[in-house]
Specification:
This protein is an alpha+beta fold. The chain is built from seven helices and seven strands.
């Protein structure tokens, strides 16, 4: 396993991760209802598949760095904690990833079976996901059906980085 990511494997660790994310997102809500408890700010919409595309890691890690975050946290909201815990493999789909990780590291964490044949790919099995950094000042919420992802955060940070729209945005071309 890469030094840049870790998968929460024990149910207790996963529940702690879930509780942490629930401070920033209303994990029981679904679009079109309000899914963000915080961060406050503007919203951008894009396709669900962006968050599971390894190339989009560049966008995610840039946002994290601009907010002073060292790590990014991705949680599979649906299937939920009880549905997604695989007792046979001791696997729960939540990932913590260093902003120093590469696109390949990101894909290794979410796209491939990182811990053995009995653990499914987060990218393939997650229907609702939440993603944020250490600061909790920004985040993504994504739902496979209706195929949408919502970015919420402080766009003043994005505006200070003049090449954002040119390079990424609003999500990417």
């Amino acid at each position: 396993m890469s030094k840049f990511h870790s998968i929460r494997t024990a149910y207790g660790e996963y529940q702690e991760f879930y509780d942490r994310m629930n401070k920033f997102f209303d994990l029981s809500a679904r679009l079109p209802d309000q899914v963000f408890r915080g961060p406050k700010g503007e919203s951008l919409f894009g396709p669900y598949d962006d968050l599971i595309d390894p190339e989009f890691w560049t966008v995610i890690s840039a946002l994290a760095r601009w907010h002073g975050d060292a790590r990014v946290y991705l949680l599979s909201v649906r299937p939920g904690p009880d549905e997604s815990y695989l007792r046979d493999s001791n696997f729960c789909p939540a990932v913590s990833i260093s902003v120093e990780a590469s696109e390949e590291d990101y894909w290794a964490a979410i796209g491939f079976d990182s811990i053995g044949d009995s653990a499914p790919s987060i990218a393939l099995t997650t229907n609702v996901m939440a993603l944020t950094g250490d600061s909790g000042k920004w985040g993504f919420w994504a739902e496979r059906d209706p195929e949408v992802a919502v970015y919420r955060g402080d766009f003043s940070v994005v505006r200070q980085n003049n090449n954002w729209m040119e390079k990424f945005g609003p999500f990417r071309d």
